[in-house]
């Protein structure tokens, strides 16, 4: 019985994480002025409804984003002039949709800004019934955990490379 009581807080914590699950980045920190592989982790649908589309707004500070092809999903790239502003993945057939009981990842690469600081990635998860608008950005005095539907966060850290170092 005491083991069950000891596990209760852990079970509650895991339930809370699952209940508030949202689209997040696999690696939430990266050096400034470097190539970054953004892996958006999608852990659920909208209720019982499957995910049929993922739309990622590209933060203005990120440069040269390129999506990774995903079997069964069409990629659309929106631009303003030469700058990519949005990348979306859309399931080609009903069988390609991400069922609620499954997990998947959507990937792109981009160059991080030279200036350290937070970079927020608004993401919209479109399901057959409903949608998840993971687009909220904290205001002054707020934390990401205060938000109901937070955007994915990348913390850009000072570069460790010396002047003139580039890959």
From TrEMBL:
<keyword id="KW-0732">Signal</keyword>
<dbReference type="InterPro" id="IPR038507">
    <property type="entry name" value="YcnI-like_sf"/>
</dbReference>
<feature type="domain" description="YncI copper-binding">
    <location>
        <begin position="22"/>
        <end position="156"/>
    </location>
</feature>
<dbReference type="Pfam" id="PF07987">
    <property type="entry name" value="DUF1775"/>
</dbReference>
<feature type="signal peptide">
    <location>
        <begin position="1"/>
        <end position="21"/>
    </location>
</feature>
<dbReference type="InterPro" id="IPR012533">
    <property type="entry name" value="YcnI-copper_dom"/>
</dbReference>
<protein>
    <submittedName>
        <fullName>Nuclear export factor GLE1</fullName>
    </submittedName>
</protein>
């Amino acid at each position: 019985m005491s083991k069950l009581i000891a596990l209760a807080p852990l079970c509650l914590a895991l339930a809370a994480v699952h209940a508030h699950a949202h689209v997040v980045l696999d690696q939430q920190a990266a050096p400034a002025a470097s190539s970054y592989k953004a892996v958006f982790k999608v852990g659920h649908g909208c209720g019982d409804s499957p995910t049929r589309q993922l739309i990622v707004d590209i933060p203005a500070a990120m440069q040269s984003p390129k999506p990774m092809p995903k079997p069964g999903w069409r990629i659309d790239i929106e631009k303003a002039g030469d700058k990519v502003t949005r990348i979306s993945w859309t399931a080609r057939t009903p069988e390609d949709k991400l069922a609620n009981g499954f997990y998947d990842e959507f990937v792109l690469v981009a160059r991080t800004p030279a200036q350290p600081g937070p970079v927020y990635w608004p993401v919209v998860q479109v399901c057959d019934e409903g949608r998840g608008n993971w687009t909220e950005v904290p205001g002054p005095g707020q934390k990401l955990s205060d938000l109901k539907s937070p955007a994915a966060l990348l913390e850009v850290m000072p570069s460790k490379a010396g002047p003139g170092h580039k890959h």
